[in-house]
Structure formats: C-alpha cells, structure tokens
Design goal:
single chain; 213 residues; mainly alpha; 2 domains; elongated; PadR family transcriptional regulator; Tscrpt_reg_PadR_N
Length: 213
Amino acid sequence: MASSNQPLTALAMAVLELLHERPMHPYEMTQVMRQRRTDRRVKLRPGSLYHTVERLESQDFLEVVDTQRQGRRPERTVYGITELGRDTYAEQAREMLATLAPDYTPYPMALAAGTELSREDFLEQLGLRVMNLRQQLAADKVAVDHLLGEDLNRMYWVDFAYVNHQRKSELEWTEKLIEDLESGRITWPDEKPEQRPELSIVETKDETDDQAS
C-alpha cells in the first residue's frame, strides 16, 4: 500500500525511533518504552501500540523480519524499519526539531485561572504540584541510573533528559512563585499592593535627555 503524507503520530515516531536500534516485536517495544520512560511523553497503551504498528506496516514503513514463539505463548511478530520508514522518520524529525509548535500543556492555563481560587487554596495546590514534581524527579533519577547502567548511547534517551530538565525548571519556577506570594513580592488581586517608589515621567525624560547629550 502506498505511504500516507499525513504526519506521523507521537507514538508512531516512538516506534520508529526504537526500530532504528534493532528489530523488535510490539511487546518488547512496550517494555523498552516503559524502561526508558517514553510513556511519560507518549500515550502508551498496548492496543494503540499494536494498531500503530499495523498502520506503519500498511504504509510500508515497517516490515516483518521474523516470528518468535516461546513455549506455549502466542507467536510474536518481529518488525524492522524499512528505508522508506527511515526517510520519513528523518524528514519529520528535521521539521519537528526546527519548528516551534504551539504548546497546549495545561499548567499555564491553570495558572491563569488560579485567581478564581483563594490565595490560600492557590498556594495549597501549588504545594501539591511541587510535591508531585519532586516525586517524579526522584522516579526520573531511578530511570536515569538504569539507563546509565545499560551503557546506552545518550542520544537514544536525550528526549528523556530534555523532559527531566523541563521538570526541574518547572519545579524551580513554581517554588519561586510560592516564595514570592508568601513573602508579598507578588500580591493577590484582592490585596492592597505594596507602595513602591515609581520614576516620574519628568525624571525619565530628563534622564533620556542627559543620555542623548
């Protein structure tokens, strides 16, 4: 069947990424993705993965290279990536690396909606987020230690390193926001803002004239 010009899904990209290393059957793909925490950036469900593999095969991006059977377990089909699959993967990777795509993560929207809560409630929810981020970072460390133990080339999990860095930055930023709210550096909308000295228009103009002269 002729290949589609539709962009590859995130799960399809993850499958092709793995098959650049070696041929695998879908169950092994699932296990490796979980070990490498790929399921933190891609919705990974066994049914959807098998469907994705079938679609990639129908588009000639994958091909069957072997079948395996262990004991009484069902026969497993091993897939390898085709040249068309490699070319399509590389083409989409180039576009995704260079293009700034819209980011629809919910955290910024939640921050914008946060003023509908009370200051105390907002801070409580941020505290819970900080706790969850710390737990996730602890789990990330376990995964990184495992990957380092496998002596796997870091380019195969550079995506995970990027997500881990994002989480660290989000934790640092959120902790700073909590600190600013608690200290009064940022005031709640229904609170009286602190009186701060402001530069007058005249002073600003004089300074500009001095610099120009």
